[in-house]
Amino acid sequence: MHWDVVWNNMSYLLLGAYPKGPLGGLALSIVMALVGIFGAFWLGLLVGVFRLSKKAWLRVPALIYIEIIRGTPLLMVIFWFYFLAPVVLGKSLPGEQAAMIALIVFTSAYIAEIVRAGVLSLPKGQMEAARGSGLSHTQAMIYVILPQALFNMIPSFVNQFVSLTKDTSLGFIIGVTELTKAATQINNRTMNAPSEIFIAIAAMYFLICYVLTAFSRRLEGKINRYQARGR
Amino acid sequence: MKRFAVAVTAILVLALSALPALANKFEDIKKKGVLVAGVKDSQPPFGYVDEASKQIVGFEIDLMAAIAEKMGVKLEIKPVTSSTRIPMLSQGEIDVVAATMTHSRERDKTIDYSITYFSTDQKLLVKKDGGIKSIKDLAGKKIGSAKGSTSEKNAKAAQPQATIISFETYPEAFLALKQGKVEAVTTDEAILHGLRNKDDKPDDFAVVGEAISAEPYGLGIVENESKLRDAINFALMDLWTEGKYQQIYNKWFGKDTKYYIPLTWTMELWP
After folding, report:
1. Is B229 found in the same domain as B200?
2. B16 within domain boundaries
3. In this complex, do B91 and A83 lie within 8 Å of one another by their Cβ atoms?
4. Contacts of A190 in chain B (CB under 8 A)
5. Which region holds residue B54: left if phi is over 0, alpha if psi is between -120 and 50, else beta?
6. Does A177 sit within 8 Å of B41, measured CB to CB?
7. DSSP-based three-state secondary structure for A18
């Protein structure tokens, strides 16, 4: 076994060429995942609420968006944003940005469906009572429905976010030097330690995903305490 | 639905046809003072990330730097992969592709090529005491290669009686050879030497056989940019006659390197 190969290249796996060059490796994967999670949550929430709207001009575009994105492989979406950007914007997007936009657009379609399911799973009386107390539909959504629904959605969100975190590895295909690409670069140079390198990065992916799930469990526990008091 | 598809196609065609309105790539490069080359970042020794400096270095980077110097401009490199190199070139994101690209007729339909700047042969990597001297000895035996490569197809054509086992990458194919799962690994000579020399016991293995196929590498250039192609071709020839090419070659493929391949071919030179 050649674990020394992994140790010698640890800084490249963790940070890429940084600080002598662009950020890469695990650090870039984490940045991409965080930006992706943040963007996908808000965009997905918006699309999900639109999807539930009674107004057709909000509901239909949201429905088309969800159906198109869910029916396309993520790899394709990444390629689209990478190769369509120069046509649409007139200038090319760096691979990192194209991959992050693709991740946000892709994941938010799934988030939107989670939001819809979460809202529909609440008893109808919640909305009726909120409207009855004088709140508008939008106010009822923001102050009564979503706070309850979002809590129920946490496990599904975490599922989707863990999946997004691992999907950052697909940035590899358009030359983004995230963890998988960095590992391939090292593997192709050294050639004698493929198993060691890929075991090492598998452990790294596991670690960041585990941190994510552990964090969500704590969050759930915390919110649970407050919720229990109200019941 | 049909009308929608037509509309989308029309928009795409319009948008795409608006792009190549640039007058002359060569003049543009001169004006900018920068030649942007797409290079590999994980294919030693052609283009890879150096362990110490963490920068992209390699044979193709040095060669492109020399060409840029001849053209009187600075070199900027952008990493590309096998799937992004041609689209990036067509979209004008890079001016030239120097990424171990075999000059094939199929690819020549969409882009132009320089003259051959590197030539390698497909050969066999075997165990030294295995008794295999050429592809003829492999009838009824197993050969390892990588998925989707030209080597895979060529080997099948050269020895129809052998079973080709395709692995994800060449290091895996080599591992299979060490474990006795295949009798030989086949691909470009440069890669085979790299595999052998990186092993703990390189003397147990040998690169053998006559060339199964030739792999001429050409620099990819955007279609119909005659001036740019001339400038690059003339620069390549000048580098060869001045001996600068050989100097770069020896730095990466010379006797003292891990990828030793004797320089057995000559560049096409125009008077």
Report:
1. no
2. no
3. yes
4. 198
5. left
6. yes
7. coil
Band (pLDDT 50/70/90 cuts) for residue B23 is low
- Residue B62 structural domain: 23-111+222-253
Interface TM-score (ipTM) > 0.85: no
Would B271 be classed as within a structural domain?
no
* Inter-chain CB proximity B12 and A87 less than 8 Å: yes
Say if domain A3-230 classifies as CATH 1.10.3720.10: yes
Q: Are A140 and A127 in contact (CB under 8 A)?
A: yes
Q: How far apart are CA A141 and CA A52, in angstroms?
A: 11
Instruction: Give every CB contact of residue A227 below 8 A, 6+ residues apart in sequence.
Output: A151
Contact (CB, 8 A) for A164 and A25: no
How many domains in chain B?
2
Q: Which residue's entry shows tokens 């891990």? A: B258
Between CA A9 and CA A26 the distance in angstroms is: 12
Has residue B128 been placed in a domain? Answer: yes
Q: Do residues B28 and B22 make contact, with C-beta atoms less than 8 angstroms apart?
A: yes
Inter-helix orientation angle A74-89/A95-121, to 10°: 120
Q: Is B135 inside a domain boundary?
A: yes
Per-residue pLDDT of B74-132, as tens digits, reads 999 999 888 788 888 988 889 999 998 888 888 899 999 999 999 888 899 999 988 88
